[in-house]
User: Fold this.
Amino acid sequence: MIRRASRWLLFLFALTSPAAITAHPHAWIDLRVSLAFDAAQALPTMRQEWAFDPSYSHLLLEEIDHREPGLSLHEALQLIGARLLANLRGHDYFTEFLVGSERLRVPDAAAAELVWEGQRLILRFELPLADVRPGAEPVFSYRVYDPSYWIEVLHDPNDVIHLKGGEHCEHRLQAPRRDPTLVAYAASLDRDQRAPVENLGSRFAETVVVRCSR
Amino acid sequence: MRPCVPSAECLATPTPWYGLAGLLLALFLLLCAPVAMADDPFGALDADPAEWASPVERASAWILQTQRDLHRRLTLALHRLDTAPTARTAGILILASFLYGVFHAAGPGHGKAVISAYLITHPQTLRRGIGLSFAASMMQGVTAIGAVLILTGLLGWLARDALGQVRGLELASFLLVTLLGVWLVLRGLRSAWRIWRSPRDPAVGSGEPPRQEHAGSGPAQALFRRVERNPNAAALLDPHHVHTPDCGCGTPHHVDPNQRGPWLATVLAVGIRPCSGAVLVMAVSLLLGIWMAGVGAVLAMSLGTALTVSVLAILAVKARDWAVRVLQPTRLSRLRYAGAVAGILGGGVIAWLGWTLFQGTLMAEPLQHPLGL
Assistant:
């Protein structure tokens, strides 16, 4: 009886722990990636396409319309695109490259554009890679994520990761390992709360590994 | 004198409750157990997902996935309602919002913490506990709707700025929670003072506590109940007092009318803080010019939340009942101050919770997200 009572109390105590304040990612990005190999089987660039969710897209458009009234859609898109890329530059475009366990420096983006398609903002850009040559060992891998986890970045489930020209290469998308404590923790963050777990988003990021047989 | 007529719930065996509680506890402990957190994020790179995923990991992944799917469904339905409105899309929006509320409320939250702490330390009937959950959840939805309609609809704020105002309401909520806790402590102290002043009941403290077949009439029951300013105070301490037909299982059948104040205060303190997801849905629907859809979605979401929180409220009320029943034959039941002490402890926990959350939120500066303008 007493054991049951203590179980009850423990249970309720656990529920009342102050790991409180509800929410989780408030917006999402569908990520499409294409990796094009050159003739020498090196990877000169990584092309990324981010499709912002429709709500976030509308919020951005409303904000630019409010701050810079009278812009055409085209002008507004140019302005938003420039600002987003300028902000993202300081955050490595939310991208992480690894060769084996060694991290590559993330270069500045090139060929960037922001377009409006089907109620969504689509941001496209290229990251020039410094002659990465994926082999069997060490493998090349990347992750794209928002460290604060306010926006969830996942590969578009209706799309594939394009490997162009890499005949002997294959890729694998690895889902994040869901640490239950972190799931509960992430659920307890609100958008204005600084994430005390450093780099929380990385814990929920997908990893893509590229392995080549030659 | 009429014999007590126990309700159907009383007659039902309580075992399923314990089974359910045990199951939930086991799940919770597993969830809380420190899981080895590989510092090398790429450590498990080559492992097969099926190999490393424990059942708990898979379960939490499923919950997360379901929540994410519902969030996407409701967002997409909202925008489809804007471009090509059909009754079917509206139905999907409402259903997805409702289910999202159910799943979303399954996580930890300060509102749930306050409600369960209050219900476990203060006497409430099951019905009032459920009512508390529903009222607080629905008020959260109404706050979200009201805040957005006033800030962006009337005052012309940006949707994004309205979303930022959640923080202000959050601070107000945490401050109110703190005040609620302090108030409950003061009430507990007053109750203890009154017990100390009142003449000792002969039944209390005598060697043989009268044992009854009906758990609700023992002295422990009476002691866990607040007796101050209650016209039936004498009757409560009398084990042979008259019961009304609706006397419940272990819960006080004479709910102290003085609990109405704290009940309303709890609804207010919890309900004044809107869910930021609901604010986002409301703000975007207003932006799209389909604010009625936003109202429907937010109310459906609140209803779903209310459902989940009610389950917690039922657990809390049942746990209290059960604790009272277990303690009845023990020496503890003869402590005259048990009810007052429980009230003071509960109030203290609530005040501490509110204050730490208030301070934490105040310290955390709003973060400028790189994908903002």
